[in-house]
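Renewal narrative, Specific Aim 1. Our central claim is that a sequence can be written position by position from structural information alone. The example that follows is taken directly from our test logs and has not been curated for this report. It begins with the structure tokens describing the chain, in the order in which they were read.
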């Protein structure tokens, strides 16, 4: 799958941003296998960009194309299909069902479009050190435990492109490395592109492309 962005700018940013940014106002193209690190200090629009690419918000000028199709012209059905099979996301806002356990949250997601067997949830939880918390209610888990669940949740579906907005913000260095390792392992299985927006350059992410937002 090919993702193209052309002359993008949030409605609430000054045109001036186009001259200072390597993303806003530029023409870029991403496709399977690309590992893209977007370095974005606070306020440069990391969350805005991630939301635009997933069609959660449309307050921008410019164009976003998936395989040549303009995201703004996609129907609800097109978007559902895109998110189900092609684009997965790790948001800062975790959106877990609070009254469900971590395992229930993950199993609900897995069953929507099974890519892995249920055992893989346990394996991934073990790899990230939260297997002993799988039966705890999401609302009783720490941010770090919830964030690791959200990472696993994103890896349970098929995808060509994985969007990540500060995916390891609640994890220490050792757990961040494990999480990025698992994300890369799953991305390689699918030959997917990973678009990783972070405050600073992540030394443990083997970026093939680096942009400053
Ligand atoms: N809907 C909106 N209307 C007006 N301004 C907005 C809107 N959404 C975001 N902004 C502003 O745009 C800027 C970028 O916001 P955004 O959340 O995309 O940044 P960010 O780089 O992800 O920041 P952080 O690292 O602090 O999460 C901020 O100054 C924010 O206040």
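The sequence written for that structure reads:
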């Amino acid at each position: 799958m090919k993702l193209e962005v052309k002359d993008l700018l949030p409605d609430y940013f000054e045109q001036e941003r186009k001259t200072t940014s390597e993303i806003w106002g530029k023409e870029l193209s991403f496709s399977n296998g690309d590992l893209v690190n977007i370095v974005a200090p606070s306020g440069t629009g990391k969350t805005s960009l991630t939301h635009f690419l997933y069609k959660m918000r449309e307050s921008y000028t410019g164009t976003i194309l998936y395989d040549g199709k303009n995201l703004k012209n996609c129907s609800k059905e097109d978007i559902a299909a895109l998110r189900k099979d092609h684009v997965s996301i790790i948001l800062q806002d975790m959106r877990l069902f609070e009254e469900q356990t971590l395992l229930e949250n993950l199993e609900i997601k897995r069953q929507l479009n099974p890519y892995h067997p249920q055992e893989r949830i346990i394996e991934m939880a073990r790899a990230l050190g939260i297997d002993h918390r799988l039966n705890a209610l999401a609302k009783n888990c720490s941010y770090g435990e919830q964030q690791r669940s959200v990472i696993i949740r994103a890896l349970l579906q098929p995808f060509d492109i994985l969007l990540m907005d500060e995916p390891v913000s609640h994890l220490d260095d050792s757990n961040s490395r494990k999480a990025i390792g698992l994300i890369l392992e799953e991305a390689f299985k699918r030959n997917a592109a990973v678009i990783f927006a972070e405050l600073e350059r992540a030394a443990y992410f083997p970026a093939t492309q680096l942009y400053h937002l």
